[in-house]
Amino acid sequence: MHKLIFSMNLAVSSELIYGILKLVYPDGTEIPYTATSGVAGWQQPDDQWAQGRGPIPAGEYEASNEPYWSEERGIEGLFYHITPDPVDFGDKTRGEFGIHFDANVPGSAGCVVLETEYG
Fold it and tell me: Is residue 119 situated within a structural domain?
Protein backbone atom coordinates (compact mmCIF):
# COMPACT_ATOMS: atom_id res chain seq x y z
CA MET A 1 0.00 0.00 0.00
CA HIS A 2 1.25 3.51 -0.83
CA LYS A 3 1.58 6.08 1.94
CA LEU A 4 1.51 9.84 1.85
CA ILE A 5 3.39 11.72 4.55
CA PHE A 6 3.02 15.49 4.80
CA SER A 7 5.32 17.50 7.04
CA MET A 8 5.64 21.24 7.48
CA ASN A 9 7.17 23.30 10.28
CA LEU A 10 4.51 25.71 11.53
CA ALA A 11 5.86 29.12 12.54
CA VAL A 12 5.18 32.84 12.70
CA SER A 13 5.80 34.19 9.19
CA SER A 14 4.27 36.67 6.78
CA GLU A 15 5.59 34.49 3.94
CA LEU A 16 3.99 31.22 2.80
CA ILE A 17 5.70 28.28 4.50
CA TYR A 18 6.29 25.16 2.42
CA GLY A 19 6.79 21.58 3.52
CA ILE A 20 7.14 18.19 1.86
CA LEU A 21 4.50 15.68 0.76
CA LYS A 22 6.24 12.30 0.36
CA LEU A 23 4.75 9.51 -1.72
CA VAL A 24 6.09 6.27 -0.23
CA TYR A 25 5.89 3.11 -2.34
CA PRO A 26 5.47 -0.36 -0.78
CA ASP A 27 9.19 -1.05 -1.38
CA GLY A 28 10.12 2.06 0.65
CA THR A 29 10.99 4.28 -2.32
CA GLU A 30 10.06 7.89 -1.53
CA ILE A 31 9.23 10.68 -3.95
CA PRO A 32 9.10 14.15 -2.34
CA TYR A 33 6.87 16.98 -3.60
CA THR A 34 6.89 20.61 -2.45
CA ALA A 35 3.56 21.29 -0.76
CA THR A 36 1.90 23.58 1.75
CA SER A 37 -1.27 23.94 3.80
CA GLY A 38 -2.92 27.19 4.91
CA VAL A 39 -2.23 30.73 3.73
CA ALA A 40 0.63 33.15 4.43
CA GLY A 41 0.38 34.59 7.93
CA TRP A 42 -1.89 31.74 9.11
CA GLN A 43 0.56 28.85 9.50
CA GLN A 44 1.27 28.93 13.24
CA PRO A 45 0.42 25.99 15.52
CA ASP A 46 -2.65 27.82 16.95
CA ASP A 47 -3.94 28.45 13.41
CA GLN A 48 -4.68 24.76 12.75
CA TRP A 49 -8.30 25.41 13.80
CA ALA A 50 -8.73 28.66 11.81
CA GLN A 51 -11.33 27.71 9.20
CA GLY A 52 -10.58 28.82 5.66
CA ARG A 53 -7.06 30.03 6.47
CA GLY A 54 -5.11 27.72 8.78
CA PRO A 55 -3.18 24.56 7.88
CA ILE A 56 -4.63 21.07 8.14
CA PRO A 57 -4.64 20.03 11.82
CA ALA A 58 -1.84 17.67 12.84
CA GLY A 59 -2.90 14.03 12.79
CA GLU A 60 -3.20 10.87 10.74
CA TYR A 61 -5.37 10.94 7.66
CA GLU A 62 -6.17 8.80 4.63
CA ALA A 63 -6.47 10.11 1.09
CA SER A 64 -8.85 8.71 -1.50
CA ASN A 65 -7.34 6.74 -4.36
CA GLU A 66 -10.03 8.08 -6.68
CA PRO A 67 -9.94 11.82 -7.33
CA TYR A 68 -12.85 13.84 -8.62
CA TRP A 69 -12.79 16.97 -10.74
CA SER A 70 -13.60 20.19 -8.90
CA GLU A 71 -14.45 23.52 -10.51
CA GLU A 72 -14.24 25.25 -7.11
CA ARG A 73 -12.04 28.36 -7.19
CA GLY A 74 -8.61 27.56 -5.71
CA ILE A 75 -8.83 23.89 -6.68
CA GLU A 76 -9.98 23.84 -10.30
CA GLY A 77 -8.73 20.36 -11.03
CA LEU A 78 -8.32 16.92 -9.51
CA PHE A 79 -9.20 16.68 -5.79
CA TYR A 80 -8.26 13.72 -3.56
CA HIS A 81 -10.55 13.79 -0.53
CA ILE A 82 -8.92 13.32 2.91
CA THR A 83 -10.63 11.50 5.79
CA PRO A 84 -11.62 11.58 8.59
CA ASP A 85 -14.01 14.35 7.67
CA PRO A 86 -14.72 16.37 9.71
CA VAL A 87 -11.90 16.54 12.26
CA ASP A 88 -13.04 17.40 15.79
CA PHE A 89 -10.98 18.73 18.68
CA GLY A 90 -13.13 19.62 21.65
CA ASP A 91 -15.44 22.41 20.52
CA LYS A 92 -13.50 22.98 17.28
CA THR A 93 -14.27 21.31 13.95
CA ARG A 94 -12.73 21.52 10.47
CA GLY A 95 -13.25 19.48 7.35
CA GLU A 96 -13.46 19.21 3.57
CA PHE A 97 -9.72 18.64 3.31
CA GLY A 98 -8.06 17.22 0.23
CA ILE A 99 -4.89 17.06 -1.78
CA HIS A 100 -4.79 19.09 -4.99
CA PHE A 101 -2.57 21.34 -7.07
CA ASP A 102 -2.36 24.97 -5.96
CA ALA A 103 -4.51 27.26 -8.08
CA ASN A 104 -4.97 31.04 -8.01
CA VAL A 105 -3.61 32.61 -4.79
CA PRO A 106 -0.73 30.55 -3.32
CA GLY A 107 -1.70 28.46 -0.30
CA SER A 108 -4.94 26.78 0.72
CA ALA A 109 -7.96 26.94 3.00
CA GLY A 110 -6.53 23.93 4.84
CA CYS A 111 -5.96 21.38 2.10
CA VAL A 112 -2.52 20.03 1.29
CA VAL A 113 -1.61 21.68 -2.00
CA LEU A 114 1.21 20.83 -4.38
CA GLU A 115 3.20 23.80 -5.60
CA THR A 116 3.02 23.04 -9.31
CA GLU A 117 1.30 20.47 -11.47
CA TYR A 118 3.57 17.72 -12.78
CA GLY A 119 4.04 17.51 -16.54
Answer: no
